[in-house]
Amino acid sequence: MASSDSAGAAGSEFNNGPLASSSIPAAVPERRKVALIAGITGQDGSYLTEFLLGKGYEVHGLIRRSSNFNTARLDHLYVDPHNSSKARMKLHYADLSDASSLRRWVDVLLPDEVYNLAAQSHVAVSFEIPDYTADVVATGSLRLLEAVRSSSSSSGKPIRYYQAGSSEMFGSTPPPQSESSAFHPRSPYAAAKVAAHWYTVNYREAYGLFACNGILFNHESPRRGENFVTRKITRAVGRIRVGLQTKLFLGNLSAARDWGFAGDYVEAMWLMLQQDEPGDYVVATDESHTVQEFLEAAFGYVGLDWKDHVVIDKRYFRPAEVDSLKGDSSKARKVLGWKPKVGFQELVKMMVDQDIELAKREKVLVDAGYIDAQQQP
Ligand code: NDP
Ligand code: GDR
């Protein structure tokens, strides 16, 4: 979907240089706001892109090279730039581990807003690949901040920056957690996010950059990666319902999380960058449920008993767990005027409904012999 040619296309579109005032026609349309999203192919990237396109933005996304296409969450938004002048979402190759690629795209695109959503975002995996996780999540954020600072300083163009912080940064600090709660990270991922948080604060204080940290609690959707616990559960419910699976292997069921809907949370990211002053905000539903409660809701919704299907497997326990997260998002509600629209039960139903439809389509392929029923997400 992205092409290395896109650099030229984007460059010629945005680097036209100033027009002489006499040559400006009376009704020049206002320049669209330009957003640059790192991590556009992820769950949040796809919802944020939809949201910003709806606000009239030109959206550019940085994607990394993969041997398989990694743009499935964006396919419904894609317009081939070769076939249409209407494409308002464009994709470019870059990587948070490659500073030169980040600086190049910030220079070429001159964005108004940069959203850093890119990360190795799986907590358990961060124990397996800690060095890589730190490089992308912590140093990668520093690389992008520095690209924004140095490009903005050279061009004189102000750029607003959003950093995707996480409730995992609170770790073992007891709930409710707010902006003033202490960070006590419990994984390489969380420690790297704490570093990225402080890099962002430092660039704000040192250089006056309009940089915000969103401290977002867990947010889910039908587009959630399939190895996060909520989606793993709803995928299994769908597959069990249509007869493609019988067991679901899970780890710690007693951990409690504050689960919201990703579509609601991207609005809060945008709102942070529309304020007069930059700041840091907790974004949460302020309600907490255990993994077991999620299981009860998801299996119960389709008339199944989770105890008939769930098997505890110690491989899914983490070396250090975050036991209980519950946000206090009163600052975001007061200052940003934000609040979540989708509650816990509605979120579970939305995810189960879509995963039943997905499992039905999967079953057609299994019955036709195209895929193996044993393949589990
Ligand atoms: P996802 O894992 O779905 O998406 C992560 C994105 O980062 C993907 O686009 C991925 O690309 C990209 N990425 C990974 N490594 C690199 C790299 N080296 N260079 C460039 N891009 C890279 O995460 P979410 O959408 O759920 O989360 C978005 C952000 O918010 C993440 O930073 C996450 O840590 C953070 N966060 C998420 C929360 C949640 O509950 N969802 C809560 C709090 C914070 P690819 O598609 O190629 O893998
Ligand atoms: P989390 O999400 O670690 O909170 O990070 P995840 O869904 O992975 O785990 C939530 C809780 O469920 C328990 N659990 C399992 N988790 C997974 N993935 N697989 C299992 O089989 C399983 N069984 C039990 C976990 O131990 C944990 O307690 C997410 C990510 O999106 C981060 O990027 C983000 O920063 C935080 O949310 C906020």
TrEMBL record:
Top-rank lineage group of the source organism: Eukaryota
Q: Can you tell me which residues the record assigns to a coiled coil?
A: none
Single GO term (MF) = GDP-mannose 4,6-dehydratase activity
Protein role: Catalyzes the conversion of GDP-D-mannose to GDP-4-dehydro-6-deoxy-D-mannose.
NAD(P)-binding domain residues are 36-351
UniProt KW keywords:
Lyase, NADP
Q: Which SUPFAM superfamilies match?
A: NAD(P)-binding Rossmann-fold domains (SSF51735)
Name the record gives this protein: GDP-mannose 4,6-dehydratase
Give the family from UniProt. Answer: Belongs to the NAD(P)-dependent epimerase/dehydratase family. GDP-mannose 4,6-dehydratase subfamily.
Identify the CDD domains for this entry: GDP_MD_SDR_e
Q: One GO biological process from the UniProt record?
A: 'de novo' GDP-L-fucose biosynthetic process
Which pathway features in its UniProt record?
A: Nucleotide-sugar biosynthesis; GDP-L-fucose biosynthesis via de novo pathway; GDP-L-fucose from GDP-alpha-D-mannose: step 1/2
Enzyme Commission number, as recorded: 4.2.1.47
Q: Which organism is it from?
A: Phoenix dactylifera (Date palm)
What's the short name of a Pfam family annotated to this entry? Answer: GDP_Man_Dehyd
Cofactors (names): NADP(+)
State if Oxidoreductase is listed as a keyword.
no
From the UniProt record, list the reaction(s) this protein catalyses.
GDP-alpha-D-mannose = GDP-4-dehydro-alpha-D-rhamnose + H2O
Q: Which residues cross the membrane?
A: none
